[in-house]
Design brief:
Blueprint lengths: L20 H33 L16 H22 L4 H20 L5 H20 L7
Length: 147
């Protein structure tokens, strides 16, 4: 009599558990992202005030398709900066609405910094890279569940 041995059960696929290294990176990234958003927003507000108050503060490095008056750019940076500060403060709560608002506002800030490249190329590139990190943090964060 031959008894067929059953194959050993296959182990379940590893699940991402709260507190794993990926979650801690994203949680730390979310906190850092919120801090960076607040700092960026304050700098954007200052940029906006400088552009509104005195158009000679910034110079353009050639003719570009995105030619706006610097006063208009000042208002754009001022409004986007205030929105980024508010969304950054909301990220500290970890609420879903804050992450959605943060992603939308950072998306607007990325577009504004891309178009702002002719006036402040180095700063715009730094802020674009920072914005991409904040977006990564917002989209990869998973709230830990207490079950």
């Amino acid at each position: 009599m031959t008894s067929a041995a059953h194959p050993p059960p296959t182990p379940p696929a590893p699940e991402r558990t709260p507190g794993s290294s990926g979650d801690s990176w994203a949680a730390g990234g979310l906190t850092l992202g919120g801090t960076l958003m607040v700092v960026y927003g304050l700098f954007a507000v200052l940029q906006g005030i400088a552009a509104i108050a005195n158009d000679e503060v910034y110079t353009s490095f050639g003719e570009y398709v995105f030619a706006f008056d610097l006063t208009a750019w000042g208002w754009i940076h001022l409004v986007v900066g205030v929105l980024v500060v508010l969304a950054g403060l909301g990220l500290f709560t970890g609420a879903t609405w804050a992450r959605v608002a943060g992603a939308c506002v950072v998306g607007l800030a990325l577009i504004a910094n891309f178009i702002w490249l002719p006036y402040q190329p180095f700063w715009s590139i730094i802020m674009i890279v920072t914005g991409l990190f904040v977006l990564w943090s917002v989209f990869n964060y998973r709230a830990s569940s207490t079950a």
